[in-house]
Design goal:
Number of helices: 6
Number of strands: 5
GO molecular function, one term: 2 iron, 2 sulfur cluster binding
Number of domains: 2
Distance between the termini: 68 Å
Organism: Rhizopogon vinicolor AM-OR11-026
Strand content: 5-15%
CATH class of the largest domain: Alpha Beta
GO biological process, one term: P450-containing electron transport chain
Radius of gyration: 25 Å
Helix content: 10-25%
Structural class: alpha+beta
CATH superfamily of the largest domain: Beta-grasp domain
Protein name: Ferredoxin
Strand order of the largest sheet: 2-1-5-3-4
Keywords: 2Fe-2S, Iron, Iron-sulfur, Metal-binding
CATH architecture of the largest domain: Roll
Shape: globular
């Protein structure tokens, strides 16, 4: 008869403490933070302000880029004025327009699918491969469909219409509706 020795799986932290495995560089760096002076600590821990978090300045009336939101039947929902660089999804959330955006603009869903006016569609930069992949899953896809999170407003888009499709496909349904932060 042969004898078997049962080997118990060990946690990586146990192996590191026993010095059976080399300590990863990032563990050494982060485990010694409590020993740093406040001046040196700032070198390791830093932050930058969020670009537009809670402090959005809207253009003066009549000076912004006009964007018309319509429902799937063509009824005007709202006309808003935007700044250059604003994306359609953020504008919709900011103005309480029912455009979901489940992935919050990370191009991982098609819930912010909008249909652009044909005369403005060609003025928008070409969609990326990732955006095209997500658009393939969009409900009611048309030749002028885009993801609202990927369309940034520019002066030449003044007067553009974004039509919301009659339905969206949400692969991330969890009972929570995305909203403007």
């Amino acid at each position: 008869m042969s004898s078997f020795r049962i080997v118990r799986p060990m946690r990586i932290s146990t192996l590191i403490r026993a010095r059976q495995v080399p300590l990863p560089d990032h563990w050494t760096r982060w485990s010694n933070l409590h020993r740093l002076s406040s001046a040196n600590l700032r070198r390791y821990l830093h932050g930058s302000p969020t670009q537009r978090h809670g402090n959005v300045t809207r253009p003066d009336p009549g000076t912004g880029i006009k964007l018309h939101f319509k429902d799937s039947k063509g009824n005007l929902l709202k006309t808003i004025e935007a700044n250059e660089g604003d994306d359609i999804l953020s504008l919709a959330h900011e103005h309480d327009i029912d455009l979901e955006g489940a992935c919050e603009g990370s191009v991982a869903c098609s819930t912010c699918h909008v249909i652009l006016s044909p005369e403005h569609y060609d003025l928008v930069p070409e969609p990326s491969d990732d955006e095209n992949d997500m658009l393939d899953m969009a409900f009611g896809l048309t030749d002028t469909s885009r993801l609202g999170c990927q369309v940034q407003m520019a002066r030449e888009l003044d007067g553009m219409t974004a039509v919301l499709p009659s339905a969206t496909r949400n692969m991330f349904v969890d009972g929570k509706k995305a909203s403007h932060h």
